[in-house]
Batch of 2 targets.
Target 1
Amino acid sequence: EPTGPSQCNKFGFMTLYPDQTDIVSVFSGKGGWIMSSFGANGPIWSMGHTDVAGAAAFVNDAWTTKNLNPIVRVLDNEEDQSLSTSANYINFITTLDSTLSANGLDKNPLYVQIGNEPNIHNLGAAEYAKLLTQIAADSAINTLRAKHRLYIVTAGLSPQGNNVPYAGTVLNNAYDAFDIWGTHPYPSFPDGNPKAYEDEISQYNGFDKPILVTEAGQGERCFTEQELEEGAVKAYKLWNEDCMQVHLIRIMFLRDLLLYFS
């Protein structure tokens, strides 16, 4: 079903800079999706637009001028995620909601991803599961989820960081603390398996939640144009065939798109 914009399709891209929303709106089409990263405790990567105020501007622009569905990835500490605290995530989400609501943007659902590849950023599976449950236990967060204003997306796991057992620990200790399972099934890494999420969710008996591909792509780990094209086409074909399981979007790095069309 359509979310914020007038239409909804299943394709989107991850971006780093606000001006890339124009490119995404062209290639994703109306109702496409866009994701960008922000700091739970202030700007990250020395980019001033990556604080909660920048997130509000990003969401507002996606909804009101680009006809896109935004996903906000939140990082408390982009490199050492063992330093993450649930309080910082909760404060970011509630501030984002109140900022948007104050500007009349209180009807559309917010999709917020908690962290990024914690399995290679110094945060153990049990600790990440605890972080999710602490966030979900907050009364304000619980209210937003109950109203379908907020959907919590788990961090995608790196395929090079023992992602399957890590997923098992998270799923079996924090299943009720999230709404959507995030995944990073890079087609070209480690074994060219774009359906690596199947191994992850197999760790939980009765898994029945949507799956969201928040990173994929070919450019970084492929060496020829043929690999780039064939791998991406294969991945998208499989994800489309798997539409009953992968309910939402298939996000590729915008870098891969620009490389392909350069």
Note: DSSP finds nine helices and eight strands in the chain.
Target 2
Amino acid sequence: LTRPEALQILPPDLSNMALFIDESHHAAESNQTSTFIQEWLFRNGKVLYGTAIPMHATQNLIIPADVWGYTRSLAIHIKEGYAPKDIRLDFEPCPGGLWEAPNVLSQMAIDLTVTIYQNRGCPYTIVNIPKGESVKNAQRLVDAFLRADPTCEVCHIVGGDPEGIAILEREQELAKKGDANLLKTKVFIACGRFHEGVNWVPCSLVITWGLPRSFPRIGQQHGRSYRLKGPNPDDPVGKWVLKNYPPDRVDVAEIVFLVEA
């Protein structure tokens, strides 16, 4: 629909039609989607915006100021049993810096990543690393985890690695069976893979290299740990409830930012 030719097939009057924009924080950008929305409104159509993030990278509100909006807070979402209750955000300064050279992660920061993981009891973890020599950097992280604990089930899915992606898909399917004892992998290392729409339900800790430049990126990365792992009283079937999940992390959604000291 967002292609220019789509506008040619729309009726001139859309007053009886509504357009729903999911993940509408993307529609705030100056792109084909925003152009299509403007034309839809010009033809008297209604637009419904849906997003978990109210602000775009420009720090402007997604929904125009003159548009009525309904807000459901994270606090209500948590209270009704749809997300973990213990929301944590922390900053971990790296004394030696995050980089040894351009696009080369510092060994001190790599070791600090492993320490953060261990100090929190080795929970199910996603590590987000920046672009630039990302495959080499991801492998260095894998090696560091295995040096610290040769039994650690760690995997990187950087660069579209088919083996790693197959492991992620397997773990996603195992999580749907609802038993944490079936899971094999404890750490996934990624570069942009875990943002919107890609979930690994067991995750309760996200470690991110540096501080993202926008609130949406922070929210999306933290959101990877928001998936419900404990019982939801309004969902007796318990589709996303994992039996045998570590009790000290079942209600935790945590993100740690590695930053320059």
Note: The CA atoms of residues 135 and 159 lie 6 Å apart.
